[in-house]
Amino acid sequence: MSCSERDLGTRRPGDAGAIRAGMAQAKPPSAGIEIEYVEPARAYLRPIYERLKSRKVLEQLKEFLSPLILPVTLHIRTLQCDDTNAYWAGRAEGLKLCYEYIDWIERLAPAETTPEGFTPEDAIAGEFVEVTLHEMGHAVFDLFNVPIFGREEDAADEIAGFIMLQFGQEVALRTISGTAYAYQQQAKQRKLSRSSFSDVHGTDEQRFYNYLCLGYGAQPATFQRFVDSNLLPATRAANCAREYKQIARAFDKTVMPHVDQAQMAEVRKMVILRPDDGINKRVDVKQ
Amino acid sequence: MQRILIAVAFAVAAAASTGATATAQDLQNSLIDIAYGEPSNAAYRPIYERLRQRRVLEELREFLAPLRLPRRVQVKTEQCGKESSPYAPGGPVVICYEYVHALEKFAEKIPADARTARGVSREDAVVGAFVQVVLNQMAHAVFDILEVPVWGREEDAADKLAGFLMLQFGTENARKLLNGAAFFFEASDRTWTGSDFADVRGTDAQRFYNYLCVAYGGDAKGFRDFVQDDSSNRRPGQAGAVRTDLLPQYRASGCRSEYNELQYAFDQTIMPSVDRALLDKVLARTDWLRAGDGR
User: Fold this and answer.
1) Do A200 and B153 touch (CB under 8 A)?
2) With a CB-CB cutoff of 8 Å, which residues 107-126 of chain A face chain B?
3) Cα dist. A159→A148, A222, A275, B169, B251 in Å?
4) Using CB atoms within 10 A as the burial measure, which of A127, A246, B30, B149 is most buried?
C-alpha cells in the first residue's frame, strides 16, 4: 500500500504501521500543486487581487509547500467567495482563500502601532499567514490521514503556529504578533454567548493565548515581552515549553513522514516575509 | 440514612462481585501501582473509606489490564490541598479527595430521586463525574507513557478519550456516564472573563458540549435526545427559546465526523498497545458499574 492509497476507505482499525514506521522510505512522487488567482467580479476586491498577483503570493506559497509529498494534486485558489472566509474545501476543490477575508484582515488592522506593540503591517501579513497555514493545516490532516485526538480547529491553529516558528526570530515574532492582534481585536468586537462555547472553534480569547503560548514555548527570549507585559499570564507561560514540545512531537510523528527532507532544507532558506509586506495595503496598485 | 444506604450498597456490591472473581483474576496490570492516601482532614475521611471499600483503584487497574505499558505508572487518591493535581510527565496520576467532594456537592443540586431535564439522577452525576476525572487523568498518563502524538489541546484530547471509553459499554452505561460527566460541567459553569481564557483547559461550557457531542457522535440513536429539535435550530441569543442543556444543531451535525476522527486517532495511536484478548474480556464484563454506585 502506498501513501497515496491511504485514505478513509482503506483505513483498518489498529493499522498504525504506517505512522509508526513512517512512509518516507516509500517516497512516491508528489502529485503537485496548482495555483490560480481567480479574477473577482466586484471592483472593490480588484486591488487585493492585483496586489496578491504582483506579490506572487501563491507562487511563493507553492514553493513553500513543495516539500509535501502529496497524494493528490493540491489546488490553491484566491477568489471572490461572496463570504468573508477561507477554507479547505476537500481533496477535489482544494484550498480557497477569499478576497473578502483579506479585505477584512486589512480593515481589522490598526492605523498605527498599538500600545502593546502590534504594528499595522504585522497585523496584515501575520494574520494572512495564519489563516493560510490554518486552512493548510486542515488540508494536511485530511491529505495525510493525521490522527487528531483533540479538537481539530485547535490542531489547525497549532500546526499553523508551529510552522510560523520554524523560520527564525523575525518571522516568528511578526507572524505570531500579527495573529495575536487579530484574535485580540475579534475578542474585543465579539460578545461571548452560549454559542461561543458550543462552537467547534475555541473562543478568540483562547486562540490569542494559544498562539502567544506556542511562540513563548518555542522561543522564550523572543516572546518574553508578552509575559513581562502580562499579555500572556505567567500561569500559562509556565506550561508553554511543554505544549510546544508536544506539538513538535506530533508534527514529527504524523506529518514529517510525508515531507521530502532535501526539499525542506531548500525551503528553509526562503525569505518568507519581506520588510514591506503588509505596509502598502491599499495604495500600491495603480489601476 | 445516607450511611445506611451506602452500607447496603456495598454489601450488595460485595455479594455481586464474588460472581465476577474469576474474571477479575484474569484482569491485572502489574505495571500499575495503586495507593489510597490517608487524608489528614477528617472531612475527606468518608470519601477515602468509600473509595477503598468500593475498590475503585483495584477496578481501574483491572479495567486497564489490556493496556501494554512500557513502564510503570502510579495511580493514587489523596488529599491534595486543592481540587486537582494535573498530571505531569512521569506521573503519578492523582485523584484528589477535594475534587470528589466538590463533584458530590454539585450532584446535590439534583434532588434525591429526581432527574434533570436531560435525565441525570444524583447518582449519575456522582458516578459520571468521578469516572470522568479518573479517565481524563489516566488519558494524560497514557499520552505521556505511550508517546501518543496529540494534536488539539491535550486537555480536550483527554476529555475526548475519556468520553470515547465511556461509550464502549452499552447505551445504558454510556448514558449514565456521559450524561453525569456533562452535568458536572453544566453545574460548575461560571462566567469566564479576561485571562481566565488563558487556561490550558476549555471552559466548563465547552467541555459540557464536547461530552454531549462525543455521545451523540458515537451513538446518534441512543442520544438523539441530547440535540435540540429542529424548531430550536438557532443560535442562543437569537429570538426564541433555546434549551442550553442540549447540543445546538449546528454543532450536532458535525459530531459524527468528530467521533470518527476520535475513533481513528484511538485506533492509530492506542490500539497498537492494547491486548485484544484482554480487551474482549474487559468489554464483556457487565459489572463495572453497579446498583448503588454514586449513592
Assistant:
1) no
2) none
3) 12, 19, 24, 34, 23
4) A127
Q: Which of B218, B212, B222, B207 is nearest to B256 (CA)?
A: B218
C-beta atoms of B237 and A193 within 8 A: yes
B151 CB neighbours in chain A (<8 A) are 141, 146-150, 152, 155, 158-159, 247, 250, 254
CA B208 to chain centre: 12
* Averaged pLDDT for residues B165-184: 95
Report CB contact under 8 Å: B150, A239. no
pTM: 0.89
What's the confidence (pLDDT) of residue B239?
53
Sign of CA dihedral B168, B170, B174, B176: negative
HEC string of B268-288 equals: HHCHHHECHHHHHHHHHCCCC
Q: A149 with B152: CB under 8 angstroms? A: yes
Mean pLDDT value of segment B131-139 = 98
Kindly state the average pLDDT of the residues B51-58. 97
Query: Is the CB of B203 less than 8 angstroms away from the CB of A197?
Result: yes
A194–B203 C-beta distance less than 8 A: no
Q: Give A-chain residues touching B262 at CB under 8 angstroms.
A: 149
**Chain A residues within 8 A of B165 when measuring between CB atoms:** none
Q: Give the domain ranges of chain B.
A: 2-188+201-234+242-274
Cβ distance B154 to A250 less than 8 Å, yes or no, reads no
Q: How far apart are CA B195 and CA A216, in angstroms?
A: 16
For the cut 70, the answer to whether the pLDDT of residue B92 exceeds it is: yes
User: In chain B, which residue's Cα lies nearest the Cα of A239?
Assistant: B200
Task: Copy the grid coordinates of residue B227.
Answer: 440535540
* Distance from the B184 Cα atom to the nearest Cα atom in chain A, whole angstroms: 16
Prior bond to B92 cis, omega within 30? yes
Report pLDDT digits (tens) over A211-248. 999 999 999 999 999 999 999 999 999 999 999 999 99
| Whether the Cβ atoms of residue B163 and residue B214 lie closer than 8 Å to each other | yes
Q: How far is CA B5 from the centre of its chain?
A: 24
